[in-house]
Design goal:
alpha/beta, Rossmann fold, 7-stranded mixed β-sheet, 12 helices, 7 strands, binds adenosine-5'-diphosphate, binds magnesium ion
Length: about 260
């Protein structure tokens, strides 16, 4: 039964989409069957995985407003072992259109539950906000994976995110847990990155991955070729780090405590 992981942080530019794309691709490379769901109207996860997002007929938007079934939304094997439900700018209207929908927080969950058994992992990328789309993702998910950018304001907004997770757990999805926190864009040449990591470790009482994602230009380049790092440059430090993260994610699922 697929473990559903939502990648969330209401801050933009922290590496959510880069992590969604490359963690998914690395898990797929390790032989796991993956479904990626892009719930950000920007659709960067979709285009980063080579999808012509504006030409897709059935996206997350059509799914949420009830125009289609989840099976019809899944684009199969865009890469080996990797399926996707994509999104595009149409999804920006969903927030308003869903107002008044019954149980609107659970639309994605109900859909995902129908296909869970087909996958090892379902990875959901989120928009940089705590809106209905993110809440839908958190209701569909088992766990939340939080990317934290190694910069001075790293901790800002984190308590708000953790409060939202608490709130969702209390009211909507009692099983929701923190999957883990992953540091992104680590720059070994600066003291700042190291200080941020130490500061967050000292102040955040959460599971933190041993793998730290370095700042790596190949990771930034890959999306413009519509490829995950596993295909664009499998020997880069970026590819290596996401592979290690994928191994940790797989092993976490087997461990009780870590
Ligand atoms: P988010 O989805 O949280 O807004 P993104 O994953 O889109 O963040 O990342 C923001 C920007 O930083 C993008 O241009 C992306 O290519 C770049 N980026 C993300 N992670 C890395 C990294 N480890 N090394 C270099 N560039 C990165
Ligand atoms: Mg993003």
């Amino acid at each position: 039964m697929g473990r559903t992981i939502v990648i969330a942080n209401q801050k933009g530019g922290v590496g959510k989409t880069t992590t969604a794309i490359n963690l998914s691709a690395s898990l797929a490379d390790l032989g796991k069957k993956i479904l990626v769901i892009d719930t950000d109207p920007q659709g960067n996860t979709s285009s980063g995985l080579g999808v012509e997002k504006n030409e897709v007929e059935n996206t997350v938007y059509e799914l949420l407003i009830g125009e289609t079934t989840i099976e019809e939304c899944i684009q199969k094997e865009v890469f080996e072992n990797l399926d996707i439900i994509s999104s595009n700018i149409n999804l920006a209207a969903a927030e308003i259109e869903l107002t008044g929908f019954e149980e609107k927080e659970f639309i994605l969950k109900k859909a995902v539950d129908q296909v869970r058994a087909d996958y090892d992992f379902i990875i959901i990328d989120c928009p940089p906000s705590l809106n209905t789309l993110t809440i839908n993702a958190m209701c569909a998910a088992d766990t939340v994976l939080v990317p934290i950018q190694c910069e001075y304001y790293a901790l800002e907004g984190l308590s708000q995110l953790m409060n939202t997770v608490e709130l969702v757990r209390d009211r909507l999805n009692p099983n929701l847990e923190i999957e883990g926190v992953v540091f992104t864009m680590y720059d070994a040449r600066t003291n700042l990155s190291l200080q941020v990591v130490e500061n967050v470790k000292a102040n955040l009482d959460q599971k933190i991955y041993k793998t730290i994602i370095p700042r790596n230009v190949r990771l930034a380049e890959a999306p413009s070729y519509g490829m995950p790092i596993t295909k664009y440059d499998a020997r880069s430090t970026g590819a290596e780090s996401y592979r290690l993260l994928a191994e940790e994610v797989i092993n976490r699922g087997n461990e009780e405590e870590w």
